[in-house]
Amino acid sequence: MNYSDLARRHGLQDQKLGNMIVKEYLTEQGVDLQHFQQFRKRPAKARRKLNRTYGGEITVPTPRTTREIKETLKVNVMWHIFYMSSIHVNQKSNVT
Predict the structure, then answer these.
(1) Residue 19 DSSP label
(2) pTM: predicted TM-score of the whole model, two decimal places
(3) Are 7 and 17 in contact, with CB atoms under 8 Å apart?
(4) Which residue in 32, 26, 34, 28 sits closest to 10, CA to CA?
(5) Direct distance between the N- and C-terminal alpha carbons of the chain, in angstroms, rounded to an integer
(6) What percent of the chain has pLDDT over 70?
(7) Cα–Cα dist 10/67, whole Å
(8) C-alpha to C-alpha distance for 38 and 30, rounded to whole angstroms
């Protein structure tokens, strides 16, 4: 039971402890407040929202194609996110 909400409904929001006034009034009228207690002994833990897909579709990760990789590289070089200098290729040396 939300005593603060009851206090606001009955115009006791100006009073500092309107919720306690409502609670005392209800106990004086003989209302069993234990009936409105929460059944949990410990407070409930916050739950994270699950990311769910809508419509029942199945999502499967797909690898990027070489065309997509080339396009993202071209765009990144064009916007100066990646800088091209010279290409270095590691070659196997036949040193014995």
Answers:
(1) H
(2) 0.36
(3) no
(4) 26
(5) 85
(6) 74
(7) 68
(8) 19
Position 28 in a domain: yes
| Two tokens, residue 6 | 């009851």
- Per the structure, the count of domains in the chain is 1
Which tokens in the block code for residue 48? 């994270």
Judge whether 14 lies within some domain.
yes
**Looking at the domain assignment, is residue 18 inside a domain?**
yes
Cα–Cα distance measured from residue 77 to residue 71, given in angstroms and rounded to the nearest whole number: 10
At 66-90, the pLDDT tens digits run: 999 999 988 888 887 777 666 655 6
Domain of 24, in residue numbers: 3-36
- 30 within some domain: yes
- The answer to whether 6 touches 19, Cβ cutoff 8 Å, is yes
Which residue type sits at 8? Answer: R
Q: Is the pLDDT of residue 55 over 80?
A: no
pLDDT at position 62, please? Answer: 87
- Record the tokens describing residue 38, joined without a space: 């929460």
Which amino acid is present at 47? Answer: R
